[in-house]
Amino acid sequence: MMVLLLVGLSAELFAQTSDKGFEGSWRGTLEAGATKLRIVLSVTRSAAGTYTGNFESLDQGATIPLDTITVNGDNVRIEVKDAGIVFEGLLNKERTELTGKFSQGGQSFPLTFTRGEQPNATPAATPTPTPIPTPAPTPKPDYSAPADAPYTAEDVSVPAPGGFSLAGTLTLPKGASRTKPVAAIVTITGSGPEDRDENIGLPGYRPFRQIADSLGRHGIAVLRMDDRGTGASGGTFKGATSADFAEDIRAGLAYLRTRPEIRADHLGVLGHSEGAIIAPMVADKEPTLRAIVLLAGIAEPGRNALYFQMKNGIEHNTKLTSAEREAQIAAINPKIDAMAAADPWMKFFFTYDPAATMRHVKTPVLILTGSRDQQAVPEQNPKIEAAFKEGGNKDVTARILPDLNHLFVHDTDGFPPDYAKLPAPIMMDAEVLQTITGWLVQHLK
Predict the structure, then answer these.
(1) Is the separation of the CB atoms in 5 and 32 below 8 Å?
(2) Rounded-to-integer distance, Cα 39 and Cα 157, Å
(3) What pairs with residue 97 in β-bridges?
(4) Which residue among 93, 115, 137 closes a domain?
(5) What average pLDDT does range 123-127 have in this prediction?
(6) DSSP assignment of 151-213
(7) I need a labelling partner for 334 at 20 to 30 A (CA). Which of 73, 171, 176, 406 fits?
(8) 137 — phi, psi (to 5°)?
(9) How many domains does one find in the chain?
């Protein structure tokens, strides 16, 4: 699962301040690599001068109470302690713009809020906003093939069942043609809105680009797509479930079958994190697939994984007293219940049983997990293997790879908030690429 911003919740009391002029509704867009999250910051102020508020991530369907709001003159500091979120910014003179830095887990991103409407309770008149400069356009991502690549990279548009199109890149080995078609796979991203490279904002981390390059150099085509509502893809991400994303991947398979350069009977799918949950769902409905690859998957309902992740984060917080730690752990299940009630994706993810679907799938499967994975823990790997074998699958390969984290990057610990501290460039391990490529060549070519 990607390093989700704004996933931690907190129900603690808020700090107080006596400064004026900050209350109201503020809007901004957090850009972490190719991921863009629209955020609403809502702040109220009591007669006693206490500020309270919350972040609302419109694209993730999450509303997060703020633990502390400190306003000192024009300086603002906001904290969400459970999630390790800190925002520090500076108000302009007119109190219409808040410019600062959003930090979580060692990563920092620029974030500017502009004021929406001022609350009625504020006695002072709202100053006339000053014109806000138009930001420079975000450079278009480069999905082209390297100069030495024995394959081409083509921008494609994939019709999806919902009436929108998914934008993608098809890497196609040179020489592929109607008379010499090649095998192909579709990649499936992890949780949260992600682009076709599975870019999560860490320097150098583009695992699906690495996989496409490795497979392209061994004669296998790869279709990787921006998630719906993300990057250049149409549709709406918010409100969609893993089952909806599975249909998007099936649309990618259907598109490949229209390409004369692709062998329609030699197709597979590869999923990472949530994608490793979606891949068996696709294979269950696409029994002619030749191969599926599951990277850092789980065999149990996602509620269990999220409970572990939240509990793990609390246990790593050295600033908590024993009593505070126990109280926050006790509050996890109610928080998960509230998240499920508020968001269709979470409700599905928390209750869906991946193992039940795995038992139906007879497609050859490769299952890989890093030994230091603290998001989809290594203990899940043999459970996934067992589920496929219990259903009668005769071609199941499962491996736990030493010293790799959830991203399949070398890591001495694997704790997700420390990913940003890994030496750049952060890239998928070469042995993982070799394992995936060798296995797919064996099963698809």
Answers:
(1) yes
(2) 29
(3) 114
(4) 115
(5) 46
(6) EEEEEEEEE-TTS-EEEEEEEEETT--SSS-EEEEEEE--SSS--TT---SSTT--HHHHHHH
(7) 406
(8) -65, 145
(9) 2
Q: What percent of the chain has pLDDT over 90?
A: 61
Say whether both 279 and 361 belong to one domain. yes
Start-to-end C-alpha separation, the chain: 30
Per residue in 333-362, pLDDT tens?
A: 998 898 888 889 999 999 999 999 999 999
Q: Looking at 82-91, 114-123, 231-240, 314-323, which range is the least confident one?
A: 114-123
* CB atoms near residue 353 (< 10 Å): 13
Q: Which domain holds residue 187?
A: 151-300+353-444
Assess if residue 14 is contained within a domain.
no
Are 178 and 107 part of one and the same domain?
Answer: no
Task: CATH number of the domain at 29, please.
Answer: 2.40.128.120
Peptide bond into 146 cis (omega under 30): no
Extended beta strands in 66-173, E state: 68-72, 75-80, 85-91, 97-104, 107-115, 151-159, 165-173
Element (DSSP H or E) covering residue 25: strand 24-32
Q: Are residues 288 and 397 in the same domain?
A: yes
Is residue 286 in some structural domain? yes
Domain final residue pick, 88, 115, 142: 115
Q: For 253, list phi and psi in degrees, rounded to 5.
A: -65, -40
Find the radius of gyration of the CA atoms of the chain. Answer: 23
pLDDT digits (tens, 9 = 90+) for 199-224: 988 899 999 999 999 999 999 999 99
